[in-house]
């Protein structure tokens, strides 16, 4: 166990380097044992074996009580300061229960790691030590010049620097920066304070992750690499502007000129038209169609669609007014930048589809624009949610729950279909109007198609149970009943009473296949046709329930 020079402030440095490590180590050890004794129960029988090895042989001989002559070489000052402290610490450690304590000498040649760590901060570094250099406030800053070392940056400069890098590094996609806070200061004050070129290049490379791609089989343009880490096209333009400012600062530094002030104005959010042209030139240099025009290998045709202006290729298009205009040509291979352009256009048109998105991309000429917009809209979550419609993922269930072979082996009315039928105006809600219509419950055998109709007072679960009980007394059976999905049929109370009073089990039609009710509802048409003849000339309100039941039985 070693201690540094800051942990033994009452003693001088050269004494602390080798004499008082034993004392500090024992103190830490006894603190650990004391804390353990307070937290562990008295009945704990776990044993500790403590072995202390020290390369200071005089300290070990005195601590173990040896009478060798080398003990006499121990300084009186060391004895006066260590005797009481070490003795108390060793006595406390040995007094702990289940602790085996030993103290032995370890030769210095075998104690290489502890000896190296104890002397690490005292290593000579020029005219001072390593510890002194690390404790200096400016140790982490890169030495740029004597003038820059005398100028301490103001808090406002640091805040502006952090704001600039935060704007360039949205979402933390650019990774860690080695000289993050000092990058804008190097750019803006490179001429005045004399920033080194190597420092600027290293910082720029760390901020934008620029790497050589000479060995790559398919090199990627700088703008395309920036678009891979950008959120929208403005990010790419601002980072291109930052690169232009850095290059301008390097040229000014090489020519001993001052950097123009308007170049660094509003650097963290402003970009110009020149930045857009630089971005497209970077993309067009890697395109097979446009690179020959920029390199001078091919001449632009006079009547052709391509036009070269300001070292950038434009594409001539016509307008609805019969005029001709030139737009920046965006190559097909720039997939990441094309995705950013389409994404910005899709946000501006408020998710109005592929045609609306393509209409917003009027600043550039993009080959295959409509196809790119369709692919983007197909992956847009907002558009998918807005245009979502309710659809069934699976088809309807089977038409019948039981086969005719199975029903043929069962007695009549064993499996029946039950439904309500209204005779008269269906929209009868008042007591006066209720007399004009009659509620009839129909029970049809699914095998023989024989049907029984019973007049009910109301269309509810209680009336249905009363009518079904009457049908069971007349026809028997009613073991399995098939209902539609009406609320009075699907209630828990209705199913419980149906099981208790009739001994029947309820089944229901599939909500997505209402045509299954035709198994027992097809007799409704025949019965209503017959009743229409029998009730001709009769008034519904003058019929009593018994009279109505007689007509229904006929």
From TrEMBL:
Residues 407-554 form the Integrase catalytic domain. One of its GO terms (biological process) is DNA integration. Signal peptide: none annotated. InterPro entries: Integrase_cat-core, RNaseH-like_sf, RNaseH_sf. PROSITE patterns: INTEGRASE. It comes from the Eukaryota. One of its GO terms (molecular function) is nucleic acid binding. This is Integrase catalytic domain-containing protein.
